[in-house]
Amino acid sequence: MNFSNVLIKWYLQNKRDLPWRNTTNPYPIWLSEIMLQQTRVAQGMPYFLSFTTAFPTVFDLATANEEEVLKLWQGLGYYSRARNLHKTAQYIAFDLAGIFPGNYSDLLKLKGVGEYTAAAIASFSYNEAVPVVDGNVFRVLSRYFDIETDIVQASAKKEFAALAFELMPKDNPATFNQAIMEFGALQCVPKSPNCSICVFNESCAALQKKKVDQLPVKSKKLKVRNRYFNYLVVADEKENTIIQKRTAKGIWHNLYEFPLIETEKEENFDFISEQIQTDYFMDNNVISILEDNDKSIIHKLSHQHLHIKFWKVNLNGSIENGINNSVLRTFPFPIVIYNFIEKE
Predict the structure, then answer these.
(1) Which of 140, 186, 219, 298 lies 20 to 30 angstroms, CA to CA, from 201?
(2) What domains can you pick out in the chain, each with its CATH number?
């Protein structure tokens, strides 16, 4: 049985109708691939549609300001993707006259474009015979061929890319790449795949050996770091508040937030209240401090769990650089802060 033929036949019968699949234009393909890193299609689709409406061409994206881009990206997470997307759009628009690099090796030089994304654009836009290797591809190939290589190892990507290249019909790399990713997304899913209806159920090595739930092999992730954020939500006598931009490298770079007290552990009212009275808002008397949420909101990132509390601080007088509620809502925030603002 020919693996590629069966796979492509399955794909043509089962593929989802996704807007970036109906074009060879590298701009929407690049946009979709950046958005779908670490993100499910269902979650990414509204963002893709918003971006292509707001920025129909790479020139539109390039001439936008960063805050517009971050505001539209709000809630999608991994915000460095959005910042790199914007910088790369400017490079393509202004340095390359709006023309994307036309091959895998040149695409790889773009900021924010790794091996997987470069391979996707090269094959989907230019039909270049380069294999994509993402989580779906690792899963499908490791199960079908019973490969026990730990996919966290640096050498794993080369091994799986070589196998995918061997299987790929060189005259139709785009369809093969789409097919193997779609098969992993819809059929050969991470947990409890329905192998009884799988087109490969007579030839899949993992199924024959009852190892489907053991593959791919993936060693344990890095230890998660816990952080404790206490946000000070100020209101002066005009109901104005203040925010600040996160300029330090790390999570949420260039997004906005309320004044922050980061602590070593979850702290109580007395501790935070004393900090506020001692170190903050020297030009305004603090009228009251209210803990908005008794229990911390736990916001999970890939390597960090943030334990977040919001503290409402009412002040006398008018605070310097205060903004009103309607202006507040125009800034890009991490989704956890955006959700807090929306429910107020």
Answers:
(1) 219
(2) 3-214 (1.10.340.30), 225-343 (3.90.79.10)
pLDDT in 10s for each residue of the chain, 344 residues: 599 999 999 999 999 999 999 999 999 999 999 999 989 999 999 999 999 999 999 999 999 999 999 999 999 999 999 999 999 999 999 999 999 999 999 999 999 999 999 999 999 999 999 999 999 999 999 999 999 999 999 899 999 999 999 999 999 999 999 999 999 999 999 999 999 999 999 999 999 999 999 999 998 766 889 999 999 999 999 999 999 999 988 899 999 999 999 999 999 999 999 999 888 887 788 889 998 887 899 999 888 999 999 999 999 999 989 999 999 999 999 999 999 999 87
Count Cβ neighbours within 10 Å for each residue of 269-297 and write b for 16 or more, e otherwise: eeebbebbeeeebeebeeeeeeeeeeebe
The 10 Å Cβ neighbour count of residue 91 is: 15
Task: Determine whether 33 is an active site residue.
Answer: yes
